[in-house]
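It would be a great kindness if you could assist me with a short task in structural biology. The full record is reproduced below for your convenience:
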Amino acid sequence: MKITSATLREIRMPLLSPFETSFARMQQRRILLVQLVVHDGDATAEGWGEVTCGEAPYYNAESTDIAAIVLRDFALPLVVGGEFAHPAAVSARMARIRGNAMAKAAVENALWDASARLAGEPLWRHIGGSRAEIACGVSIGIKDSVEELLDTIARERAAGYQRIKIKIKPGWDLAILEQVRTHFPDVPLLADANSAYTLDDAGLLQEFDRFGLMMIEQPLWHDDIYLHARLQRQLKTPICLDESIHHVRDARLAIELGACGVINVKLGRVGGFSSALEVHAATRAAELPVWCGGMLESGIGRAHNIALSTLENFSLPGDVSASRRYWREDIIDPEVTVTPQGTILPPSSPGLGFAIKRDLVQKLTVWEQSF
């Protein structure tokens, strides 16, 4: 496969409602899209990828503006005009760029999309997926009041979502979980701390055990594995690692140290499908379950997450949810929908399996550059 051209563009999509975590409150998403044109003999295909980082370097070291520089000045010049025997080979070509996993993932994932289109099969089958239906959970940000949170949970449960994830932070934790459990005693529930606590809070975190949580996600430092292992020995509730896991080496270290009982695999955070497949293989061998996390993606990133979630060891409901939870209109057709049973059916068309609404993408574009 030869990448003959690429287009990098920024689109801006307003969220239906603000989404707040322990480190930021978002009302609009600035999203970078990578569009590749790929030739293989006489055949030509497009591939689309999405940079899933935030607008500011709060979740990790990447941001929309930083990723744009990395892609424009380094990654895309490295790969445009190059020939690749396999989509994973483009990751090797970009390996000299340290870090910046989400920027590089957009390029690799776009090539996977094009490769699947050239092969005439859905992306999820192209990566080795086997699930004909994936279970969906939902992530709920910090709300302005407990009443608003409880109303949101009730609405999402009525929509069929199989698991509820709520964001927590110091001061918005024990009392909130108490209220949620009182109103929803049986709901599968997890709490996502986004690194808001330290090991000094171990006593507080031990109190979470009485809520019967599926897991507590990334309670400690974003770059830590060792102290999570110490904390896990003090908790009955499984720890889920998110920000700490950047590649298969981190996953193996976390497994060996007993730092967690679950791993959240975010496609951008680990650097794309080839890295995600390595993490998947290691966790499956260790019988450690994984699930697919979300970053408020547009339909393109959401379609990639659907493909990832079809892999065998993605046995827990992930953050892949319906387009209409976040966007008035998504940039794919059909938009992602969730069944009344809280599942998504992977598409049957080649590649991402969704058509790109090009007119809408162009309308939302604030700048673009071709290579």
